[in-house]
Amino acid sequence: MKKILILILAFLMIGLSGCVIDLENTVDEIRIDTDNFKVNLNLDNRSEIGDLKTHTKVIELDRQEELEVRLDVNAAKINISSTSDKLFEGKVETDIQNLIPIMELNRNKLVIDDDFSYNSLRNFTNDWMLKVTDKVPLSFDIKTNATRNNFDFTGLQIEDLKMNINAADTDIIFNEVNKADFKTFRLDLNAGSVEGHRLDYASVEEIDVKVNAGNVKLKFGENIIKDTKIYLDGNASSATVELPKDVGVSIERESNLVNIDISNRSFNKRGSSYTSRNYDTAKYIIDIVVTGAMFSVKIN
After folding, report:
1. What is the pTM of this model?
2. Ramachandran angles phi, psi of 193, nearest 5°
3. What is the spatial distance between Cα 208 and Cα 267, in angstroms, rounded to a whole number?
4. Strands 88-96, 49-59: parallel, antiparallel or unpaired by DSSP?
5. Cβ–Cβ contacts within 10 Å for residue 205, how many?
6. Ordered structural domains, the chain, with CATH
7. pLDDT tens, position by position, for the chain (300 residues)?
8. Backbone dihedral angles phi then psi of residue 205, each to the nearest 5 degrees
9. CA 240, CA 193: separation in Å to the nearest integer?
10. Which backbone phi and psi does 18 adopt, to 5 degrees?
11. Which one of 213, 231, 268, 274 is at 20 to 30 Å from 134 when CA atoms are compared?
């Protein structure tokens, strides 16, 4: 992993706002302001900030039957949305002079990367606007560090979604029913926040969340159309799951170091398990398994 991930994870476990890290030798300072999303890095004297440049990449639709998207970008604002006309459209606006974005297709694999060493950067612009086709089934493998992410998956055909998010604030949006058979959404979050909007439209079978020193919100609307299993594993973190009242809910607590707040709903309790009163009669079921340490979970 790049220096930024190691440094941020080592020191941001205590909080996200206004963190300053002083290190010896090649690293002088890292400053992260998550309220306004500014990332200041000062590692050595080799990098330069100059005029704003725009990098674009367009990949035409061909005979692809599926597409695997691998994204690994750091210290940026990242927006993902859909396109119907192309396989991929990418636009990067940055004033980092030696940053050359990688946006390449190899058969059915789309690689999006920033092959770049972060050196002596202050108050820079690094905006990635990415559009992915809605014409074929998709799998995403996303890794970001010190980023502000807006992932609007509305209209896409997502079959698998994997995210490794570090020291970042992320919004995940589904405003229409996902067009593919969505098996698994895996999220690893370290020091940051992730908020999922209208996950009922995602129509995913399993959600697996691991969070350390972060906050996760999973918001489901009224259009749940399948049973879903949710695994929540947290350390020094919090999670909120918002569900419609007509869905049946079960909660299994697998650790005594977890606090579960169910005060806004009616549950029957047996040992470490909770079931909603409509569990046996509801059309669709959400089963939640919770484990971790110093982990606060709220079910609304």
Report:
1. 0.84
2. -140, 145
3. 23
4. antiparallel
5. 13
6. 3-299 (2.160.20.120)
7. 444 444 444 444 333 333 332 323 333 344 444 444 444 444 344 568 899 999 999 999 998 999 999 999 999 999 999 999 999 999 999 999 888 899 999 999 999 999 776 655 668 899 999 999 999 999 999 999 999 999 999 999 999 999 999 999 999 999 999 999 999 999 999 999 999 999 999 999 999 999 999 999 999 999 999 999 999 999 999 999 999 999 999 999 999 899 999 988 889 988 889 999 999 999 999 999 999 999 999 999
8. -80, -35
9. 11
10. 55, 45
11. 231
DSSP string, the chain: --HHHHHHHHHGGG-STTEEE--STT--EEEEETTTTEEEEE--S---EEEEEEEEEEE---S-S-EEEEEEEESSEEEEEEESS-SEEEEEEEEETT--EEEEEETTEEEEEE-----SB-S--EEEEEEEESSSEEEEEEEEES-EEEEE-TT-EEEEEEEEEES-EEEEE--S--SS-EEEEEEEEESSEEEEE-HHHH-EEEEEEEEES-EEEEE--S---S-EEEEEEEEEEEEEEE--TTSEEEEEE--TTEEEE-TTS-EEEETTEEEETTTTT-SSEEEEEEEEEEEEEEE-
Classify residue 278 by burial, with Cβ atoms within 10 Å: 0-12, 13-18, 19+. Answer: middle
